[in-house]
Amino acid sequence: MKICGKISEIKKHLKTEKAKGLTIGFVPTMGYLHEGHLSLVRESLKMTDKTVVSIFVNPTQFGPREDYQQYPRNIQRDTAILEELGVDYLFVPAVEEMYPSGYKTYVEVTDLQNKLCGRSRPGHFRGVCTIVLKLFNIIQPDWSFFGQKDAQQAIIIQKMVEDLNLETKIKVLPIVRDKDGLALSSRNTYLSPTERKAALILYKSLQLARQLFIAGEKKATLIKQAMIDLIHQEPLAKIDYVAIVKMENFEELEIITDKALVAVAVFIGQVRLIDNIILSEKEKTHEKNNAKK
Ligand code: PAF
């Protein structure tokens, strides 16, 4: 695995690969890798000729009172894992490489960026889109891989790719969960054992939403209230939002007609966690037929 810290260096390598007609897969990360990231890397290794992973804790996507400084980092462990998996290139730029002094350009996906997580994290998606667009320009991937765990991020990036006529195709892969259902996240490391148990309330609330929907409930308002009531039973949990929205524009739904994104953001102590599921009529029919078997 080649490790590059400089933009010019990684560009040079990838230019050579492309000249050979090879396809490039790209997995952008902030490091502290877990199975969720690795599922993206494995897919890239399967689908493309050369896989590039970036590790960059991007300061512009953190608010002033957020965890940029404390964000978990372990570059040595991450490097060993990626090497073992067979990744071709690891791009690990310094902050000054991506944002040299005098840096002034930012990308915004208007409207979508201000909903759900964007409401409590102003500027977050502006930072995400800016760094992802810069990385896309540097790597010029044929395929880029994102996790469904950050559902809003994945949808916003797909919109940016469409609106700015970018060449990369985006593949979004399912959430990877621990055995008990907790969605994997680098931020889970902040949780104490008691908080780790309490954090299961996110998954439980989503399971409840799914059960109600499969049982025939279509009223989003009612499902949402049931989720809120359940989360309130967990003393360590403080709701940031519980939302049942349209996939394309994150507008709140009253009735689930076809497909809905059910997304939650909940503070467990000081740690803000997110999780989501997609409800769809198609899935409902599938589950009902399976139950009959
Ligand atoms: O999902 C992440 O880890 C980050 O938001 C990303 C896409 C690497 C941009 O910094």
Structure characterization notes:
By secondary structure, the protein is an alpha/beta fold. It has 2 domains: 2-173, HUPs (Rossmann fold), CATH 3.40.50; 186-292, 2-Layer Sandwich (Pantoate--beta-alanine Ligase, Chain: A,domain 2), CATH 3.30.1300. The chain is built from 11 helices and 9 strands. The strands form 2 sheets. Strands 1-4-3-2-5-6 form a 6-stranded parallel β-sheet, with helices on both faces. It has a 3-stranded antiparallel β-sheet with strand order 7-8-9. A hairpin with a 2-residue loop joins strand 8 (259-268) and strand 9. Helix 9 (200-214) runs antiparallel to helix 10 (220-232). The mean pLDDT is 97. Pantoate is lined by residues 28-30, 58, 61, 128, 131-132, 150, 153.
Helix-strand layout with pairing:
Elements: E1 2-4, H1 7-19, E2 24-29, H2 35-47, E3 50-55, H3 75-85, E4 89-91, H4 95-98, H5 117-120, H6 124-139, E5 143-147, H7 151-163, E6 169-173, H8 193-198, H9 200-214, H10 220-232, E7 237-245, E8 259-268, E9 271-280, H11 281-292
Parallel strand pairs: 1-4, 2-3, 2-5, 3-4, 5-6
Antiparallel strand pairs: 7-8, 8-9
Helix pairs in contact: 6-7, 9-10
Bound molecules: pantoate.
